[in-house]
Amino acid sequence: xxxxxxxxxxxxxxxxxxxxxxxxxxxxxxxxxxxxxxxxxxxxxxxxxxxxxxxxxxxxxxxxxxxxxxxxxxxxxxxxxxxxxxxxxxxxxxxxxxxxxxxxxxxxxxxxxxxxxxxxxxxxxxxxxxxxxxxxxxxxxxxxxxxxxxxxxxxxxxxxxxxxxxxxxxxxxxxxxxxxxxxxxxxxxxxxxxxxxxxxxxxxxxxxxxxxxxxxxxxxxxxxxxxxxxxxxxxxxxxxxxxxxxxxxxxxxxxxxxxxxxxxxxxxx
Length: 269
Known about the structure:
Elements: E1 12-14, H1 21-25, E2 35-36, E3 39-42, E4 45-47, H2 62-67, E5 69-71, E6 80-84, H3 87-98, H4 113-117, H5 120-128, E7 155-158, H6 162-172, E8 176-177, H7 197-206, H8 208-214, E9 229-230, H9 233-238, E10 239-242, E11 247-250, E12 253-254, H10 260-268
Parallel strand pairs: 1-3, 1-6, 4-5, 6-7
Antiparallel strand pairs: 2-8, 7-9, 10-11, 11-12
Helix pairs in contact: 5-7
């Protein structure tokens, strides 16, 4: 489990895979981050116990599953931020990385390689019907929540206009910003071309709660997001998601896709 020195006050960056973190951290070149100073949490998962597993690696990499976690208390009194991406676009990017199509960054050793080589539809249906390996039908951006359900970021940025968001975040937190050359850029093909009506419906049904939280839509810009930019204190304290049980709650109320407007009303009140 990873620990940070308590005297550190630089913002912590949670790197959710396939959301632009390699660009932000300049991980393929000199590591001179787009905004600084920041401390990179990477693909770690915030946990409350030493034996807690990181969902990203559980089921296929036991060593990383137990090793790439970070004590939740390390984030106390720290600015924590992450970046999310339209879930439809994210799924296409993940598929390319796993082996679908002619993605330039394909990983032939990926545990989803065989599923991806069978086509996007096959891979998406496989993901939407499993719970043992991440990604699965639970939250894709599960790193935003700790093992006990606590929402960790104070700020959540959107990959769709990442440089603008990073610039604003830097200004609001007295950091420096310097636009860099993009890294790990995959296909520029419209992600919507990979989805049939059936797959749009499947994606919306499976990840509907998460899509509503971040305001993601298939054929329109993000809107009405609960989590975007600076997270209101009320939301930070009351919105929880436990990956183990796949339960989303606001206060004591369980939130589903069907009753999500109750959450919007509570947040707006």
